[in-house]
Each structure stands twice: as structure tokens, then as C-alpha cells.
Amino acid sequence: MSLVNLAHVCSHLNNATKARLGFTSIPNSNLHLKLCLALQNDGFISSVVRGGLEPPPMHNLLGIPTAYDEVQEMEPLTQSNVATRRLWLGLKYWRSQPVLSKISMVSKPTRRLTIDVSGLREVVRGQKSGYIEGLRSPGESLYLSTDKGIKEARECVEKKLGGLVLCRVL
């Protein structure tokens, strides 16, 4: 798991929302895909579509089926085209403000922060636990990499899971 690449993705998403882009692309990796699917589950982004260098059709990004919708086959993944795979993300806005206003890394590549369930309970309640600040804003989320995949902090408390703290989303 490369936290350097994840830091690049976080800064790219911050820049894309500041530029008011409708959709953007990030490099395809399993970590990026799982984090983006978790962000989509929590309503921060609208869609996640795997593709190549060219963006997929707009109705695929928006999730709107069409009458003439053909099944778009992606070319098979080979050693020569693995670097060209991208994840295309649809960004959400509400009343001209981005839903994903800020995403920041908590663990750094040189310092990985893990947390157990009791420390995570304090963070969810808004208190500081170790080096991790509590969740204070109403829409704030904290994402962890656990044995069961990437989960939000409140979900980890319910399922009694701890793990590596990845990023904080406002």
C-alpha cells in the first residue's frame, strides 16, 4: 500500500473541487478504488468508473441508462497498458459548493498511524486519541484501512475494528 500515491490523490481531489470540475481521473489501483467506493458510499462523490486515458461517456459517469446503451468492453489488462488505466470520478456539488470540500492525509508515508477500537471511540466522540484529532464537524469523516477493507470510523466502531488511519474528509 503506497501512501505516497494516496497523498497525490488527496491533493488532486482538493484541487479538482477548488477548480469546480465535474469529473476527474486518478490512477487506478486497488487502494484508490476501495477508497473512492467508500467515498461514494458516504455520498462525497457521485460515481466511480474504471477506464483508460479517454473519459468514458458522460451517461456512464452520471449513472443514467440510455436506450442505445451498448455494453462498453474495456480492452483486457496487459503488461503494456497497465499504466494507462484510470479511475474516473464524478464530483458532487450542492448549492454551488463542493460536497467534498477538503480531504487530507492523516498517516504520512514516513509515519503510519494505527488506532484500536477504544481510541477510535474517543475520536468519533470528538476527543483526541494519541496523534489523531477528534471528529468535530457534522459532515466530517475519517477513513481507515482495516482487515475488512476501507471503512469509515463510525462503521469501524460498530464492527469493533481498528486499523491504519488513512485520511480525513470534510
Quick structural overview:
By secondary structure, the chain is an alpha+beta fold. The protein has helices spanning 3-18, 30-41, 58-62, 117-124, 153-158, and strands at 23-27, 45-51, 86-91, 93-94, 97-98, 103-105, 114-115, 141-146, 149-152, 163-169. It has 2 domains: 3-98, Ribosomal Protein S8, Chain: A, domain 1; 106-169, Dna Ligase, domain 1 (2-Layer Sandwich).
Report on this model:
InterPro entries: Ribosomal_uS8 (IPR000630), Ribosomal_uS8_sf (IPR035987). It comes from Emericella nidulans (strain FGSC A4 / ATCC 38163 / CBS 112.46 / NRRL 194 / M139) (Aspergillus nidulans). This protein is α+β, with helices and mostly antiparallel strands. It has 2 domains: 3-98, Ribosomal Protein S8, Chain: A, domain 1, CATH 3.30.1370.30; 106-169, Dna Ligase, domain 1. The protein is 28% helix and 26% strand. It has 5 helices and 10 strands; from the N terminus they run H-E-H-E-H-E-E-E-E-E-H-E-E-H-E. The chain has helices at residues 3-18, 30-41, 58-62, 117-124, 153-158; strands at 23-27, 45-51, 86-91, 93-94, 97-98, 103-105, 114-115, 141-146, 149-152, 163-169. Strands 6, 7, 8, 9 and 10 form a 5-stranded antiparallel β-sheet that branches. Strand 8 (141-146) and strand 9 (149-152) form a beta hairpin.
Rg, Cα atoms, Å: 17 Å
Helix and strand string, N-terminal first?
A: HEHEHEEEEEHEEHE
Proportion of helical residues: 25-40%
Round the mean pLDDT to the nearest integer and report it: 91
Which fold name corresponds to the CATH topology of the largest domain?
A: Ribosomal Protein S8, Chain: A, domain 1
Poorly predicted spans: none
Largest sheet: 5 strands, antiparallel
Count of helical regions = 5
The name of the CATH architecture of the largest domain is: 2-Layer Sandwich
The total beta strand count reads: 10
User: Number of domains in the coordinates?
Assistant: 2
What percent strand? 25-35%
Distance between the termini: 23 Å
The SS-based structural class is alpha+beta
User: What is the 3D shape?
Assistant: globular
| CATH classification, class level of the largest domain | Alpha Beta
